[in-house]
Amino acid sequence: MTIDDILLETEEKMLKTEEHLVSQFAGVRTGKASPSLIDNMHVEAYGSHMRLKELATITAPESRMLMVQPFDITNIKAIEKAIQSSNLGLNPATQGKFIRIVLPDLSAERRQEFVKICKKMTEEGRVAIRTERRQAMELLKKAKADGGVSEDDVEDAEAETQKLTDQYIKKLEDHLAHKEKEILTV
User: Structurally, how many domains does the chain consist of?
Assistant: First the structure.
């Protein structure tokens, strides 16, 4: 494996970590309704666990309301049960072929809980990025030991790996700051 391959693979993994964090943040509730709040919720339907977005159309007709319209009306009870059993504090109401979810106001304590959850997710992302850095450094040392690469090239690649690590950790911090602001805005 060449140095360029190691660096490219490391950057790809760090990018995936960043994308994963952003998708996790989408499921953390803010003051306004967003379909991404519940679209990855698991529902037991057709004898297996499926994501809600695979079973229904989710819209936000108002800033504090979500509407769920199942593709198959027979899944409406399973969807309602999954929403109620989630830890999001949502109370779904079935109205014919729709499920309406009115989002309650978030208390200051609940907002702080969501911020703590986001900080924990960000720390997990930082750990994942550092793990990628460590694996890249090990591959670089192995390439140097095998003798196919000069010491200067390895040192340059290690510096580049550290630069990538710092860059992606900064991106995670920026995503956290944005989400925290979004959550705390009343």
Answer: 2
CA–CA separation, 94 and 109 (whole Å): 29
Question: What's 81's domain CATH number?
Answer: 3.30.1360.40
Query: Which of 53-57, 164-168, 171-175, 181-185 is predicted with the least confidence, judged by mean pLDDT?
Result: 181-185
Q: For the whole prediction, is pTM greater than 0.85?
A: no
Tokens of 120: 């924990």
Paired tokens of 93: 């109401």
Answer with the one of 86, 102, 118 that is the final residue of a domain. Answer: 102
The per-type count for the chain, helices as H runs and strands as E runs, is 5, 6
When pLDDT is averaged across residues 46-70 and rounded to a whole number, the result is 89
Same domain for 45 and 86? yes
**Distance linking the first and last C-alpha atoms of the chain:** 51
Residue of 38, 27, 96 lying closest to 65 (CA atoms): 38
- For residue 186, pLDDT over 70 is answered with no
Task: Quote the strand ranges of 52-111, DSSP E.
Answer: 56-62, 65-70, 92-95, 98-102
Query: Both 140 and 156 in a single domain?
Result: yes
pLDDT, tens digit, 9 for 90 and up, residues 157-171 = 999 999 999 999 999
